[in-house]
Amino acid sequence: MSKYEHIKEEAFSANMQLPKLNLVIFTFGNVSAADRNLGVFAIKPSGVPYESLSPEKLVVVDFEGKVVEGKLHPSSDTLTHAVLYKHWGNINGIAHTHSMYATAWAQSLRDIPIYGTTHADHNTVDIPCATPMIDEMIRGNYEHETGMQIINCFKDRKLNYEEVEMILVGNHAPFTWGKTAETAVHNSAMLEYIAQLAYLTENIKADALRLKDSLIKKHFERKHGPDSYYGQ
Questions:
Q1: Taking the model in full, what pTM does it have?
Q2: How far is CA 71 from the centre of its chain?
Q3: For the chain, what are the domain ranges?
Q4: Catalytic annotation on 229?
Q5: 3-state secondary structure of 128
Q6: 35, 111, 121, 126: which one is catalytic?
Q7: CATH-assigned architecture of domain 5-224
Q8: Is 77 among the catalytic positions?
């Protein structure tokens, strides 16, 4: 048995959640699962339909994006995952989708405003949309530069990747992450739901007000604060 079997199984299970949650169509999207001790992550192979996917088909690469194990080509987004793992040492799972509403917000180049408590349960800020890539980056190593586009957005906005586990890449689509691949997928599903709610909110009332700070603080801290009490 491969010493990478555990992350291949984890990544496979997480990837299979994407179509079940209606976060992808055809072969779009990918999830990876990392093992920090081994310095590698397992990721979906490029262009393989989800119904044909199996743990054995997943590809294991290092944090430079070099293939360590696997016969298929890794996802075209592999270098983006590698950059995030390399720069952010406390994440072990990354998900990338082209889910409809989140992608529409990314295409509009807009942050998703924090309108309600559903959003505040997961973030205390608007969900950031990274500015479009400059031409020099586009002409370079595109997937690597996409990772840097995300890193730079968080640096510029002084955001903590452990507190805000999602982003819209301008003109592209969402990326999410977390302590596990399962958490990353959960964040993708919540991002899509929040994006849909925000879209509907603005269609109901174009000048809808952002959630007030006291409610943002209350809803986030009751789930994530030092005295959290929501859930088990």
A1: 0.95
A2: 26
A3: 5-224
A4: no
A5: coil
A6: 121
A7: 3-Layer(aba) Sandwich (3.40)
A8: no
